[in-house]
UniProtKB/TrEMBL annotation:
Cellular location(s): Cell membrane; Membrane
Main location: membrane
Keyword annotations from UniProtKB, A to Z: Cell membrane, Membrane, Transmembrane, Transmembrane helix, Transport
Family, as annotated: Belongs to the major facilitator superfamily. Proton-dependent oligopeptide transporter (POT/PTR) (TC 2.A.17) family.
One protein family per Pfam: PTR2
This protein's name: Peptide MFS transporter
Membrane topology: Multi-pass membrane protein
Coiled-coil stretches: none
Membrane-spanning segments: 35-52, 64-86, 95-117, 123-146, 158-177, 183-203, 224-243, 255-273, 285-302, 330-350, 362-383, 389-408, 429-450, 456-477
Domain Major facilitator superfamily (MFS) profile: 25-488
This protein's record includes keyword Cell membrane: yes
Transmembrane helix among keywords: yes
Length: 488
């Protein structure tokens, strides 16, 4: 294959809204991947707990929310595998491409295979593929900029806009198709979306800088057989645990939480103890730890959009629009609308402020505080009957969700690439996604404690906990910045 041209790495390349032209290619594949991902996830929970008469599988609601939380956590947990393969074997660009193929196959399985078989095969493929694509798409975006390029945060915010264009359209179209033609038609549309993304990316691969294909820490050839044996052994162990009912549908979220915790500790130990990491890089990795903890707390609340918020939208929200009932998945398109509107505003703000903008720890602390406040905003409508919460209230709450998200998520992607040691560039991005994995699995686990008949303890305790976490980080800004060694 001909090596990609290096033009996208030139600071003078401003052909995509002031950003490198190659950003458009990554923007496109991520947009369509998010279309398929959120389109499928928008109908997944109700598919699991709706009755057979409604076209669903009739699974217990608590177990269903746990499955969705565990699946969401597994997506981000899979970034470890995708990042490792990129850093040790194939490079980020190739892993991104192959991951997109696996995602498409997963959506096809959900669309064509019946019942729990389709759910099992489809979710495993989508989780593995999405994990590989997410970590590596972010890493490839990072190769478009030098460390001191002032466009960097703005570029990541624009990249985040692509994510949310897909996240907006996915639930709208799959939700409409599900409500009119059935769940499997909705899953099929998700597969079509990923196929479009693959075609677009294939046509634009030549613009990706050569650095994106570099294998930064090559695995010695004599260790390939060992790694294959470990992979096969892991699959066998999981199969045995499932057969012995140690791994069950009702404890999937617990298992993903434990695996995510173990992976997090192992990753930090490996990176911090590596001889390939310099003293300066090691200090920056230590600085990432408090950011990681706050990120876990943030995602534990934010990702309840796909667990508690879905149940809330189905049972507590008044979805009547002039005599027509809005599909449940459409609520998940509200947040992306605000992201689309505000991403440009935030990108322009960071660009205008330049070096005067708040540091990353300040942005993270504010994100946690605002996210906690969003949960407290549920309280005025607590204790109401079925379908009594006005749609406008949810719109306002999700606006606050969005402000918090824009202070943490694109900034988290950007700071991770800045703090990453050169030998663990993509795997450091996987560490950030591990915080999302842990938070998402916790969101699924927390959903079992949500009771529509007694909502005050749930929303108030979680909201206050997030605010306390954010304040703690704000108080620790100076020592964290000292450890970041010049990175802000």
């Amino acid at each position: 294959m001909t090596a990609p041209t290096p033009e996208a790495t030139m600071p003078t390349d401003t052909r995509f809204f002031g950003q490198p032209r190659a950003l458009a290619t990554i923007f496109g594949v991520e947009m369509w991947e998010r279309f398929s991902f959120y389109g499928m996830q928008g109908i997944l929970l109700i598919y699991l707990y709706y009755s057979a008469a409604q076209g669903g599988l009739g699974i217990d609601e608590g177990i269903a929310t746990g499955i969705v939380g565990a699946y969401g956590g597994a997506v981000y947990l899979s970034t470890i595998l995708g990042a490792w393969i990129a850093d040790r074997i194939l490079g980020s660009e190739r892993v991104l491409f192959y991951s997109a193929v696996v995602i498409m196959l997963g959506h096809i399985a959900l669309a064509l295979l019946p019942g729990l078989l389709g759910v099992g095969v489809g979710l495993v493929l989508v989780a593995v593929g999405s994990g590989g694509l997410k970590a590596n798409a972010t890493s490839v975006v990072g190769t478009l900029y030098t460390e001191d390029d002032p466009r960097r945060d703005a570029g990541f915010s624009l990249f985040y806009l692509g994510i949310n264009l897909g996240a907006f359209l996915g639930p709208l179209l799959t939700g409409l198709l599900q409500s009119t033609a059935g769940f499997h038609w909705g899953f099929g549309l998700a597969a079509v979306g990923m196929a479009i993304g693959l075609v677009q990316y294939t046509l634009g691969r030549k613009r990706i800088p050569a650095e994106a294909s570099v294998v930064h820490n090559p695995l010695p050839r004599n260790r390939y057989a060992l790694m294959i044996g470990v992979a096969v052994g892991a699959v066998i162990v999981v199969a045995i645990l499932m057969f012995a009912r140690v791994i069950r549908a009702d404890n999937l979220a617990d298992i993903v939480i434990l695996v995510s915790l173990a992976a997090t500790i192992a990753y930090f130990v490996v990176i911090l103890s590596s001889r390939k990491v310099t003293a300066l890089e090691r200090s920056r990795v230590v600085a990432f730890i408090p950011l990681f903890i706050v990120s876990v707390g943030f995602w534990s609340l934010y990702q309840q959009q796909f667990t508690v918020m879905t149940v809330y939208s189905d049972k507590r929200l008044n979805r009547d629009l002039f005599g027509w009932e809005m599909p449940v998945p459409w609520v998940q398109s509200i947040n992306p609308i605000f992201i689309i509107i505000l991403s440009g505003v935030f990108a322009a703000l960071w660009t205008k402020l330049g070096t005067r903008q708040p540091s990353t720890p300040v942005k993270f602390g504010l994100a946690a505080i605002i996210m906690g406040a969003a949960f407290l905003l549920f309280l005025p409508w607590a204790g109401g009957g079925e379908n009594t919460t006005p749609l406008l209230a949810i719109v306002g709450i999700l606006f606050v969700f969005t402000v918090a998200e824009l202070l943490l998520s694109p900034i988290g992607l950007s700071i991770t690439t800045k703090l990453a040691p050169s030998a663990f560039r993509t795997q450091m991005v996987a560490l950030f996604f591990l915080s999302v994995a842990l938070g998402t699995a916790i969101a699924g686990w927390l959903a079992q404690f949500y009771d529509p008949r007694n909502e005050v303890p749930y929303f108030s305790s979680l909201g206050i906990a997030a605010i306390v976490l954010g304040v703690a980080l704000l108080l620790a800004v100076k020592p964290v910045l000292k450890l970041m060694k010049g990175v802000r």
